[in-house]
Amino acid sequence: MEFILSVMLLLFQSITGIDLASGGGNALPVKPPAVQQPAGTAPAAPGGEKTPAEGTAAVKKDPQPDAPKVKGIYVTAHSAGGSRMESLLKLLDDTALNSMVIDVKDDYGYITYPTENAEMLKLGEPKKYIKDVNALMERLKKHEVYPIARIVVFKDTVLARKHPELSFTRKDGSVWQNGKKDSFVNPYRKEVWDYNIAVAKEAAKLGFKEIQFDYVRFPEGFEKKADSLVFNKTEESRVDAVSGFVKYAKEQLEPLGVRVSVDIFGYAASVPAAEGIGQDFVKISKHVDVISPMVYPSHYSTGWFDVKDPDKDPYATIKGSMIDTHKKLDPIGSYKPVVRPWIQDFTAKWLGKGHYIPYGKAEVDAQIKALRDTKIEEYLLWNAGNKYTTGVNF
User: Fold this and answer.
1) 374: in domain
2) How many domains is the chain built from?
3) Residues 272-300: tens digit of each pLDDT
């Protein structure tokens, strides 16, 4: 992509409101940093917190020590509760894939199955996408699927509309929304923390082995709109508010023996902390068992990793992103979580003619090879429609 394409993508974002950001929501293409952190340099931790050097940190205990090396796919609640689940289970039965990341609280904020949990129902709104969640869990167990519950945290249109005081409002009292009509809730509000953790606790009790939090951040470009919005906040920075939630969630879920993972922008490994949206790669990684950077090649603009069109060179793009990830996380020693990236199994036609290629077996294989070549053993495949490429060398 040339500079003009980057501008076009930004215009596309502002006009359509399509959030090209997050495990589910993809990631907005950004320009590569002018100066990248030198190899072996420990990143400075916000708030004066010292980043432990190799060998000086307490050993992080894995609550799922017998977990397999996860190779998984994303599954919507519609798929999990519908006829497509049959073919997805067959895909896992027939390949080395062994895990499903299933929406338990989706991108709109709906709880995706009926529940009688009073704590969840105070703020949440269930849907019957998965009519019998216990039957689903038994089905996954029968097929030896490692189950991961995806919980979309701070992008929550349902909660924002029901409780504007927990969201961001304009001066006229209306709830702020992006161009796609999505609203976010306020990461400074502990009520929001406790609600999402209540969902996570029930998912753990249902039998999910891992809780994957997505949209653990403020809205994109928040630093440009914060002064025009009304919301509660403390003296803490946005980075500390977000990492504070992650730390608190980990502490709350510890007794249940589940892993905690977080989806994060792929380029977060290659740039300083994204203070506008409150994401700091290192601070979040220190408090999770698994970190899942979203490294879809289509979401890097021209120049990243010395590649003109990253989408057209999946091997180089993934390899570059993983090298940066290791550089960012190696200095935290024993605090380093399992690195399990989200990779691309979709075609990014929106990039425009000449800037993308159709993604199939060769492109998925190339990404997996890049991971193996950088000593990454786990990964997750993203396709919003849950249509995954067959014949891949998993």
Assistant:
1) yes
2) 1
3) 888 999 999 999 999 999 999 999 999 99
